[in-house]
Amino acid sequence: MAEQKDSLLAKLDQLEARYSEIEKQIFEPEVASNPNKFIALSKEKGKLKTIVTKYRRYKKAEAGIEEAKQILSDSSADEDFKALAKEEIPQFEEQKNSLIEEITNTMIMADDMDIDSVIIEIRAGTGGEEAALFARDLYEMYTRYAETRKWKIEQLDFSVTEKSGFREAIFSVKGPGVWSELGYEGGGHRVQRVPETESQGRIHTSAATVAVLPEPEDLDIEIAPDEVIEHVCRSSGPGGQNVNKVSSAIKLEHIPTGITVHMQDEKSQHKNRAKAWRLLKSRIYEHHMSKIRAERDSQRKIMIGSGDRSQKIRTYNFPQNRVTDHRINLSIYNLDKVLAGDMSEIIAALKDYDRQQRLKNL
């Protein structure tokens, strides 16, 4: 434990030194006159600020303890000063312990907090029309939660059934902390309820899959144009009919990974191309990141789940008004509230569990 703390403090010294260096660099004429450098350094400074500020408060508390100890060991010191110093030591110790815990939590979750844009893909699974209606319920749950967090939602692509269910829904969500909260949603979601079309009142089980992809900034990932094959075709509607006579649908195929993206939501070929490239970048980014995570941390699946769509993560049981997250064995008996967008209890529990597991594996 002491070795772990020493390692953490050494890392914090490095971060503080880097922060001080950035503070100097930002005011240098060559940086101030270069917008790209200035923005990059400002972003880096912003990411470090919270941790460095807390670490400086930690060091101030540590200095306060040393000063109080010196007063207590000074035989010539006034007794009133000694009494005051004796009172201050436990206060500074408490402050130190609290700050080091906050810093540790911030550091282990920092990578997640840095991602403020995700693309969510929801697809109906087994269960026919009922599965498509459930996929729509999941979409509404996420968008309502996003609205309570003041996040920005952008629809990218939808495939709707005759009864207004969703075969597929792809949309982006942007805002502070979006990945750290919605990143746990990837996987298989299952619903148990009596479908509207069921005349006998029998409970059916249907499924939908969710993928949550961090949307990288352009600086995070570069794709060579010659690695991508583009196909242009006409958009098709229900039953295979063309929704327009212009070739506006775009299909992109990334040769090295075999990842393909099809986008036909917009009537404009230009807009479909832009959306398709965004989705392709996110899928390739997640493809590479999943490999890195698997190599770096084999414990990830044990912690909170792999995010693999084949992994069943949650069941929504309507007869019992219950939502169960199978990864952390959490059941909430207020299904209506959760589907209405109040996901805060589930997300808080998942974040806390993940944080505890990361601390164990730090």
Keywords:
Alpha-Beta Plaits, 2 domains, three-stranded antiparallel beta sheet, single chain, 362 residues, alpha+beta, 10 helices, 51% helix, flat
Question: Can you tell me about this structure?
Answer:
The protein has 362 residues and is of the alpha+beta class. It has 2 domains: 2-112; 115-360, Alpha-Beta Plaits (2-Layer Sandwich), CATH 3.30.70.1660. The protein is 51% helix and 20% strand. It is built from 10 helices and 11 strands. It has helices spanning 2-26, 29-32, 35-73, 79-113, 128-148, 178-182, 269-296, 300-303, 335-339, 344-360; strands at residues 117-124, 152-160, 166-174, 187-193, 204-214, 228-233, 249-254, 260-263, 312-317, 322-325, 330-332. The strands form 2 sheets. The chain has an 8-stranded mixed β-sheet with strand order 2-3-1-5-4-9-10-11. It has a 3-stranded antiparallel β-sheet with strand order 6-7-8, covered by helices on one side. Helix 1 (2-26) crosses helix 3 and helix 3 runs antiparallel to helix 4. It is flat, with a radius of gyration of 26 Å.
What count of structural domains?
2
Quote the CATH topology of the largest domain.
Alpha-Beta Plaits
CA radius of gyration: 26 Å
Sheet with the most strands: spatial strand order: 2-3-1-5-4-9-10-11
Total number of helices: 10
Unreliable parts: 238-244, 296-307
Assembly type of the chains comes to single chain
The helix-strand sequence is HHHHEHEEHEEEEEHHEEEHH
- Give the integer mean of the pLDDT values: 84
User: In percent, how much strand structure appears in the residues?
Assistant: 15-25%
Structural class: alpha+beta
Give the C-level CATH assignment of the largest domain. Alpha Beta
How many strand units?
11
Largest sheet: 8 strands, mixed
CATH architecture of the largest domain: 2-Layer Sandwich
Shape label: flat
User: Cα distance, first to last residue?
Assistant: 11 Å
